[in-house]
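Amino acid chain:
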Amino acid sequence: MPQASKALGKKFEVWLELLLLGLGKERVLRNVEIHKDRFTYRQADLIYEQANKGRIETVIVEAKYVSGACLHYYLRKGPLKKIGAPTLINNVVDEVLERKSFVGADHAVLVTNKHFDSRTLSSTDSSSIIFIDREMLMNNYAKMLERSGIRNHISLEQSIAMIDLQRQNMCKNIIYIPRCPARHNTILYAYSNA
């Protein structure tokens, strides 16, 4: 991935963090490593908690910044073998589902600044992933601006490009979870900016 695209991807993650905070989400973390032990971990672009019917739910977010027309189903780098994963992962949907299972999250969100290709969208029936595309992002962005009393709407790309990475905490947040939690979907947080 070229440096410019990588920087835009990081800016997109920061933008999403700010959006989630602006929409009232709490305990939002970006650039997270979730560890079960020293060598068995997964990376999540964002993770946050939300209350639902008296229960705290964990949500992981996979952010995919795309410079082309759409986010493609198959992984750009080809199939991946993750430590602790039973099979090879060759598409973005399976990657997010595997990460959700590893973490024990209640929900997984796959978000892009563009659109999803037809193969990715056809997988929505059988998967438990929330898909957020450009239109949904823009609707949430408008809600956040309205809540904040801001009337100056700029494009999604302009608002992402305006993020100054030098002013952001770009350190990793590390979370350690037990291999066999007493109750599934319980994450023990031990934050560390390393």
Remarks:
- The domain at 3-176 is CATH 3.40.1350.10 (Trna Endonuclease; Chain: A, domain 1).
- The chain has one domain: 3-176.
- Residues 93 and 126 are 10 Å apart (CA to CA).
- DSSP finds five helices and eight strands in the chain.
